[in-house]
Every structure is written in C-alpha cells, then in structure tokens.
Design brief:
The chain is mainly β and 138 residues long. The chain is globular. The strands form three sheets. A five-stranded antiparallel β-sheet has the order 1-9-6-11-4, with no helix packed on it. The protein starts with 9 loop residues before the first strand and ends with a helix. Helix content is 6%, strand content 46%. Bound molecules: thymidine-5'-diphosphate (TYD). The site of thymidine-5'-diphosphate has 7 residues, from strand 4 and strand 5. The site of thymidine-5'-diphosphate (TYD) has 7 residues, from strand 4 and strand 5.
C-alpha cells in the first residue's frame, strides 16, 4: 500500500445500454468492467450539505465509487499529491486502489454515492488517523 499513488486511480466508463423511450441502464460485471471481484456494496445518501464523508485509507481494499444520483467530489491523497475527481454520471466510476486517503464532499441534494468494494467490511483494513497514514506512506 505504501507505493500507490493518486495516478493509479482512474475513471472507468461503464457499459451503458440506452434507449430513447425506456431510459438507460449501466452494468458492472466482475472480471469485465473492473479489476477486482465485488464482495460488498454500500451507499451513502441523505448526506447534508457541507458534510465530509470518508476521511480514511484502506490497507488492501479496492473500490469503485459511482454517483448513481446527483454529484459529489472525491479527493484522493497519497501522502505527497492530492487529486480531486468530480463524479456526476451514473455510467462512470472512480477506481480507488488501496493505500490512499480519501474524502468525499460537496454532496448535491439527492446524491447517492454507491461504493462497490473488493472485500467484506473489516475494521482492521482501515487507517483512520491521518498522521499514521503519512507515517506508513513515507
Ligand atoms: P465510516 O467508515 O465511518 O463512514 P464514512 O467513512 O463514509 O464517513 O462508517 C460508518 C459506520 O458504518 C461505522 O460504524 C462502520 C459502519 N460500516 C459497516 O458496518 N459496514 C460497512 O460496510 C461500512 C462501509 C461501514
């Protein structure tokens, strides 16, 4: 995890099935759209304006973050560089590799932030103290 950089993360265009009259559908499939198998899905919603979520790093978790509704900004930090990605399309996902501090903020009204994760919830995988994160990275 100590080698990962903000440039190891990328925005992935998801498969989008469109129809003029019936709307759109996007698909995420293990082994095709993303470089990990999905073991858990969670989503943030009803986040009040001005609130920041996240504020932690993961030792080994991969994540795909999708704005399935509304918009928000994800800031990635590798201990040296920061990079902010604005997400506002349900057919786009931000791939986040392990070893990055990430925060999510500027939630629009009605925003839903869906996270597809590579493993089950494990508090041991979290680094929740920014100073400890910097020590591990540098
Ligand atoms: P937390 O990681 O603090 O949320 P955020 O970083 O987005 O602000 O998670 C909030 C609470 O939910 C915390 O008590 C842990 C719990 N939680 C689970 O039980 N399972 C999960 O998959 C996740 C992501 C969190």
């Amino acid at each position: 995890m100590n080698r990962s950089s903000v440039y190891d993360c990328s925005v992935i265009e998801l498969d989008c099935h469109s129809s003029d009259r019936r709307g759109n559908m996007s698909v995420v499939e293990n082994g095709k759209s993303i470089p990990f198998d999905v073991r858990r899905v969670y989503y943030l919603y009803d986040v009040p304006g001005g609130v920041e979520r996240g504020g932690h790093a993961h030792r080994s978790l991969y994540q795909l973050i999708i704005a399935v509704s509304g918009s928000f900004s994800v800031t990635l930090d590798d201990g040296k560089l920061k990079r902010t990605v604005f997400l506002n399309r349900p057919n786009r996902g931000l791939l986040v590799v392990p070893g990055l501090w990430r925060t999510i903020e500027d939630f629009s009204s009605g925003a839903v932030c869906m996270v597809l994760a590579s493993s089950e919830y494990d508090e041991e995988d979290y680094i929740r103290d920014y100073g400890s994160f910097l020590n591990l990275k540098n």
